[in-house]
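Subject line: Sequence and fold of a protein, written as C-alpha cells
Area: Proteins and the way their chains fold up in space.
Start of record: The labelled sequence and C-alpha cell lines come straight after this line.
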Amino acid sequence: MTFFALPLTEHFYKRPCIQSYSILCSLFLAHKQALCIELATIKITMRLTSTVITFLSFALCVFAAAAPQVMDSKKKKYEAKFHKGAKGSINFKSNSKGEVKVSAKLSKLPKEGGPFYYYIQDKPVSSNGSCGAAMGNFNPYKGKPNATEAAEMEVGNLSGKHGSITKKSLKTSYADPYLSLNETDPAFIGNRSIAIQYANGTRFACANIVQN
C-alpha cells in the first residue's frame, strides 16, 4: 500500500476546522500556562506560610510566657553557705502552702560598690571556688533581665523580686512562689548556686545550694 504526503498549503491552514483546532490549542496552552503560574504561586505561598508558622513556633519556644507559680515543693531544706566575700547563709525550705521560703542572713559585705544583687545561678560553683563556673542566672522560663513583673523576671533573680542589698549586712525572709524544691520541676534550685555581685555586675561571693 502506498501513502502520499499531501502538501500543507496556506489554503489548508485556512480551513475552519483547522482554525478552530488552532484556537483550542492556543487556549489550552494559555490555560496550562496560567495553571502552572497559579500552582507555582500556591506552592510559594504554602512555603512562606510554613516558614512563618515555623518562625512563630520557634519564637514561642524562645520567648516563653511568664513563669508559673508552683506549690509542689517537698519538705526538704537547702542551704548556701558563704565563707569568702561575705559571711552567712541563705536557706530554702517549703512552707505550708508548698512554696519556697527564703531566709537570708549575711554580714561582712563590702563597704563600697553597692547596691549589691544576688542571684541563683544555673550551675554550681567549681571545686576551686570560681564563681564564673556557675554560668548565668537560673532562667528556665526565659525571663527578661529588665522585667518589672516578678513572673516575667529570671527565676533566679532574687534581688529583682525581693530587693537588693543596700547595707553591709542582710537579714530578711520571704516566700518565693516561682522557686521549687521538687526535683521534677523546671524551677528546682537544688545543686545550683548563689552569687552576690557589685552594682557593676562583678561577682564577689558565691556558694553552692546543697541539701541539709
Notes: Residues 80 and 209 are 5 Å apart (CA to CA). The chain has two domains: 10-62, 77-211. Confidence is low (pLDDT under 50) at residues 51-62.
